[in-house]
Amino acid sequence: MKNLIKGRWGVYTLYKKNKLYYVGLANNLMGRLKTHLKDRHRGAWDRFSVYLTIKSSHIKELESLLIRVTNPPGNKLQGKFINSKALKRDLVYLLKVHDDNKRASLIGGSYAKRRQKTLAKKAGGKNSLEGIFNKRVKLKAKYKGITYWASIRKDGKINYNNKLYLTPTSAAKAITKRSTISGWEFWHYKDDKNKWVCLNKLRE
CA 181, CA 161: separation in Å to the nearest integer? Predict the structure, then answer.
């Protein structure tokens, strides 16, 4: 057993009377277990298990995952995930956006228009058009004497010729093959007066 784990990478677990006590990571499992016979874990465990692995950048992630899932009493700190981030702020933002969109849909009128304008201004560049319309809306464009039809879905994606585009400009480029064109000026929709106006009117 000593020869098998000496100098090997892996994750190990310590137990006390069949209950998980500690989860650890080591690049020399035998050396680490010997250390635990003398450090603060001395006497707190009576058997162990080792899981041999090859050296990998994912080993730390594996250890962190095990600690968070099992929450052993011997681990004072929870493991951290590389390049991870807390999602609470993003979740709060998404919930707020959803609530604002729902409120605009229910109230309608000037409130809905202000909400639509706010979303349209934020939808520049690569940002989605999600929430601008609460139902699928037809789009129309004329280019070199030909009329093209498309639609904006509730999720903000533009459906043209059975293909989805994230922005008005990307859909316009698919038609014109031009690298410089504004999809907000290219595409038109019917406003509340039933008139065809360019998408850019949403921002005004």
Answer: 19
Q: What is the pLDDT of residues 111-154, one digit of tens each?
A: 556 665 665 566 655 446 776 777 898 999 999 999 999 998 88
Query: Is a pLDDT exceeding 90 seen at residue 6?
Result: no
CB contact burial 114-134 (16+ within 10 A = b; e otherwise): ebbebbbeebeeeeebbbbbe
| CATH match for 2-70 among 3.40.30.10, 3.40.1440.10, 3.30.450.40, 3.40.50.261 | 3.40.1440.10
In the chain, residues under CATH classification 3.40.1440.10 are: 2-70
Contacts of 38 (CB under 8 A, 6+ apart): none
Question: Which tokens sit at 58?
Answer: 């994912």
Q: Residue 184: pLDDT above 80? A: yes
| Amino acid 55: pLDDT | 61
What is the DSSP track for 92-125?
HHHHHHHHHHHHHHHH-HHHHHHHHHHHHHHT-T
